[in-house]
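Comment thread on ticket #2218

A.B. wrote:
> Attaching the input chain for the structure job we discussed in standup.
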Amino acid sequence: MTDAPMYLQDGHLMCTWCYWYGPHGDHGDRAAGNDEDSCGESEGQPFADNRRMLRAQNLELQKQNIELQKQLWSAQRVVEAGHAKMKAERAMQQSFVKSLFDRMEALEEALRKAHKQNRCAQWALRGSFDRISDVTEELEDAQAVLEAVMQEKDQVARAVSLPDAASWRLKDSAKKVVEAPMQTQVLCLSMPRLLM
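C.D. wrote:
> Ran it. Output below, let me know if you need it in another format.
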């Protein structure tokens, strides 16, 4: 025990145990070369008061320790709640960002499809324009053919009408030729009456 730290209490050298918790045996001053009994008074009133004071201090320290432990636990719960909240917010942000990326990908896909449909529509429109041009040319050709046919029809109609007119003129001449002798005969028959 000679190597243990010694404390001075009321003029007596005491070991660490005796200093903090009271005397516990015949050592201390005697071990340090002093002939006095133990580490001071073994059953004195100062040691009892010291023990009560130390116990009260120990209880107070334990209460403070418990209170600090409660505060530490409360702080840990607050920190854990903060971490959980941050984790939930991070998860929400990640989900929101993921949904945004998904929507962007869907919009890009829809845009690509729209561009493809637009190109197809442009090609179809160009084909329609080409078809319209072809149909217009065909209509123009048909109209030219129709005009030629109408001209031929007019020519045929004129050619047909000419014999009709000649036949009518011939009929008129024949009628006149036929009617002329009859008029002469009627005139001859009516002459005697005129003479009478």
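A.B. wrote:
> Thanks. Noting for the ticket: Residues 26-44, 186-196 have pLDDT under 50 and may be disordered.
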